[in-house]
Design a protein that fits this description.
By secondary structure, the chain is an alpha/beta fold. Helices cover 26% and strands 27% of the residues. The strands form five sheets. Strands 3, 5, 6, 7, 8, 19 and 20 form a seven-stranded mixed beta sheet that branches. The protein has a six-stranded parallel beta sheet with strand order 11-10-9-14-15-16, with helices on both faces. The chain starts with a strand and ends with a strand. The model has no long low-confidence stretch (mean pLDDT 95).
Length: 401
């Protein structure tokens, strides 16, 4: 079983972070916290466990953040003991090859996508009964028992040949979805969950910051939930702007004086001051920040109207110096959105994954043109380089057999 994994070895990670600018190859050296390994196939550790052979897997920004040590050791999640080893690759569709005697919902030969496997244990994978309040409510990604360390952990991930998982950590793929669509279920669920955390309404002004894969999917979900809103997308590269327009953006912002452009688009009033990037009164109703860097958070809070909302979809895993004054001064709501969970939709509560799968099968969410680059796993360095350099035209880079 080939796999790429990251160990939470703080001294090694800090060394890689310090040396990487002068020596990019340090990430793949024996000094690194990252390991490309060929492991013996592990036995299934329990009756409710299964084995999956990968068909294809996308490269996600969170994978790259861990690999390239963009995460700060002082960031809150790093303190959790449940986050000790990360097998990279979670946007993965695979085929079940073996199931334990206690597995009831899946069978060999069935296609599955990974759900909670990447972010660590849950009450369900640890077989804790009764589950915590978050797991019981369908928000297993927020599990309060995630770092208890009860029972076995899966081996392998999407960046490899396959993996072992508890049956609660994967979801079946319906026959009507292609492998490309299935591999994009997870990022599509991230986008839909973010929009449902604070849904826009008809006639509102909405901004999506960032036009990478999550930003483009979020733009689609905005138009899916509120087709009558006015959608603006902030895109850095021309190919991203073209894709955003194809997926329903009414306005594209790119370069130049963005504060003035925001004021012009929203009818807000821009005020400038010395040593200050400025402030807009009367901006966007809802902003989805799909980047989550220091500057995008600062700008988003200043571009939101009074009592508007900024939904934090992307995140920089570091300590950020951010001006939070608009949260107080303009009563702007700053809302976190961590991946997916259980949503209110059509008068029912459903998990985001099957909801997304229904939208994909019905053609309400589009994936055509989103996977721009494909590489075999043996060319992982080229694949990672393509994913890092968006000017090449990359949107989603994918490993294929």
């Amino acid at each position: 079983m080939r796999a790429i994994y990251i160990d939470k070895n703080i001294p090694r990670a800090l060394m890689v972070k310090a040396l990487r600018r002068a020596w990019p190859g340090v990430v793949w050296s024996p000094l690194s916290h990252a390991h490309f390994v060929d492991l013996p196939e592990p036995p299934l550790p329990g009756p409710r466990w299964l084995r999956v052979r990968n068909r294809q897997c996308g490269i996600c920004a969170s994978d790259l953040s861990l690999l390239l040590v963009r995460a700060d050791p002082a960031a809150a999640p790093v303190a959790l003991p449940g986050n000790e080893r990360f097998y990279l690759g979670h946007e993965v569709v695979g085929e079940v090859t073996e199931v334990g005697p206690g597995v009831k919902s899946l069978r060999p030969g069935q296609r599955v996508v990974m759900e909670s496997r990447f972010t660590g244990p849950t009450c369900f994978s640890q077989e804790i009964d009764p589950p915590c309040r978050q797991c019981a409510a369908g928000a297993a990604r927020l599990c309060e028992n995630a770092s208890l360390g009860r029972g076995p952990s899966g081996v392998g991930g999407g960046w490899g040949d396959g993996y072992t998982a508890h049956e609660s950590e994967v979801r079946p793929v319906p026959d009507g979805l292609s492998d490309d669509q299935a591999s994009l279920v997870e990022p599509s669920a991230v986008a839909l969950h973010a929009v449902l955390r604070h849904p826009p309404h008809r006639g509102e002004q909405v901004l999506v910051v960032g036009a990478g894969i999550i930003g483009l999917l979020t733009a689609q979900c905005v138009k899916l939930i509120a087709p009558g809103c006015r959608l603006t997308v902030l895109a850095r590269y021309p190919h991203q702007a073209q894709a955003a327009q194809r997926f329903g953006a009414d306005v594209i912002l790119s370069h130049g004086d963005l504060y003035q452009q925001v004021a012009d688009q929203t009818g807000g009033r821009l005020y400038r001051a010395m040593m200050n990037r400025g402030m807009i009164l009367g901006g966007y109703d809802v902003i989805y920040d799909c980047v989550g860097h220091r500057d995008t958070i600062i700008d988003s809070l200043r571009w939101a109207r009074a009592r508007g909302a900024v939904v934090l979809v992307g995140i920089d895993f570091s300590l950020l110096k951010v001006d939070l004054n608009p949260v107080w001064y303009q009563e702007v709501d700053l809302i976190g959105s961590h991946t997916f969970g259980r949503e209110e939709a059509d008068g029912r509560r459903r998990h985001t994954f099957p909801l997304v799968m229904d939208h994909l099968r019905a053609g309400r969410l589009q994936t055509d043109g989103l996977i721009t680059h494909r590489f075999p796993l043996a060319e992982y360095r080229r694949a990672i380089d393509a994913a890092l350099h968006k000017e090449s035209g990359a949107i989603k880079v994918t490993f294929v057999p």
